[in-house]
């Protein structure tokens, strides 16, 4: 069993409108934009990052906003719900705030004894907020959200699968253990992790295969401390027969990617070097930062990309 995985690092989704995505993440959820850059493979499209004040792994939601993308179709083989943690006695506040801000499909449910508030994101993507206690992660205090109710980071992610067996075995290899099962949902935990410790496996044999588009999670990334830990994880996954990419430098972390047995795209990302590697902590997410290979496009990109955060 691997011991290097620390929990969720970040989750990346597809979106349609950069401005709407930015408003939802900052004005509705009260998160901090910690990086404004572009897609490595499609530099005409933003890559936007939202998190707590420091961009701590386990708090980072990122987006590729493609203006002409079709809507995604919910189904099996994807992250169905991205779940945030908030302090106890916060759901009334969030239910009122989300309603006032125009969020849709807001409703409550219980899972594993927790109070959950579900709602849709700007493109119909699935989110939930869960009350937790003793979460030590420092929130970003913005958009009028008080510390007593602010989002702490990820609580969990729910993976929708037709058959959970292969993904359950993979997560077990990655250091996760079972916490129990309820209504067809298996909860797994990375004990002693980074706070974003939980993964729920929802088995839905009759679900259609998910179609990627606006509102779809593109991939889920798991955190490791550094390059050495990442190589150790990669070597073991290769030994187990997984097809893994080479290490790719993403400027703020190093990444490897592979497809989990249930169809979800997994990434292993390093905590280093972090989002302050090219920007002062006080000004994270303000200026457009470009990967070196796209630096020569700055004038054109600054003219063509939609203005956000102004």
Can you describe what's shown?
The chain is α+β, with helices and mostly antiparallel strands and 310 residues long. It has a single domain (8-304), classed as 2,3-Dihydroxybiphenyl 1,2-Dioxygenase, domain 1 (Roll). The protein contains 5 helices and 16 strands. The chain has helices at residues 18-28, 91-100, 165-173, 227-239, 298-304; strands at residues 8-15, 32-38, 46-51, 60-65, 78-87, 107-111, 114-120, 126-132, 153-161, 177-182, 185-189, 198-203, 217-224, 248-249, 253-259, 265-273. The strands form 2 sheets. It has an 8-stranded mixed β-sheet with strand order 2-3-4-1-13-16-15-14. Strand 2 (32-38) and strand 3 form a beta hairpin. The longest helix is centred in the last third of the chain and has 13 residues, at 227-239. The protein is globular and about 50 Å long. It starts with 7 loop residues before the first strand and ends in a 6-residue tail after the last helix. The model has no long low-confidence stretch (mean pLDDT 97).
């Amino acid at each position: 069993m691997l011991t290097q995985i620390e929990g969720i690092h970040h989750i990346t989704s597809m979106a349609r409108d950069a401005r709407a995505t930015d408003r939802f993440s900052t004005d509705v959820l009260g998160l901090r934009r910690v990086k404004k850059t572009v897609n490595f493979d499609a530099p005409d499209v933003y890559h936007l990052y939202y998190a707590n004040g420091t961009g701590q792994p386990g708090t980072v939601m990122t987006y590729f906003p493609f203006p002409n993308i079709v809507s995604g179709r919910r189904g099996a083989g994807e992250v169905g719900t991205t779940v945030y943690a908030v302090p106890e006695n916060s759901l009334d506040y969030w239910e009122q705030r989300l309603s006032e801000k125009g969020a849709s499909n807001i409703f409550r449910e219980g899972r594993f004894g927790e109070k959950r508030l579900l709602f849709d994101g700007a493109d119909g993507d699935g989110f939930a907020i869960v009350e937790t206690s003793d979460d030590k992660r420092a929130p970003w205090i913005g958009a009028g959200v008080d510390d007593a109710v602010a989002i702490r980071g990820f609580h969990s992610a729910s993976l929708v699968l037709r058959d959970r067996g292969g993904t359950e075995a993979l997560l077990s290899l990655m250091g996760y253990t079972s916490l129990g099962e309820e209504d067809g949902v298996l909860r797994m935990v990375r004990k002693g992790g980074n706070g974003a410790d939980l993964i729920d496996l929802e088995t839905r044999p009759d679900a259609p295969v998910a179609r990627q588009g606006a509102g779809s999670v593109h991939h889920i990334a798991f955190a490791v401390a550094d390059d050495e830990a990442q190589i150790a994880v990669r070597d073991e996954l290769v030994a187990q027969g997984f097809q893994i990419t080479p290490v790719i430098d993403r400027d703020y972390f190093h990444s490897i990617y592979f497809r989990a047995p249930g169809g979800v795209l997994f990434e292993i990302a390093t905590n280093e070097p972090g989002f302050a590697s090219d920007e002062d902590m006080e000004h994270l997410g303000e200026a457009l930062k470009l990967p070196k290979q796209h630096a020569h496009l700055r004038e054109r990109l600054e003219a063509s990309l939609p203005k956000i955060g102004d």
